[in-house]
Predict the 3D structure of the following.
Amino acid sequence: MCWLPGVSRARYYRHWLDSAPRRAETGLRDLIQRMALGNAHYGYRRIAALLRREGWQVNHKCILRIMREDNLLCPARKTLCSCDDKLEAW
């Protein structure tokens, strides 16, 4: 089958193995998107906790990667810095 189009077997199986995990995570990606859009202020840690409660065994780094790819992360809070006060004392 690989001989007709001129593709090596190694290339065929390499491509097949790369696409298999993406198919498996489509259900997880859909669930993460629904949770993130339903709870706009939830970050990846809270979403991970909700998924664990529902019985999913997912790494927090995987959730962070998916949320980053889909642009679902909420913006980071700005911290107030009192650096100017310290400089005036000098």
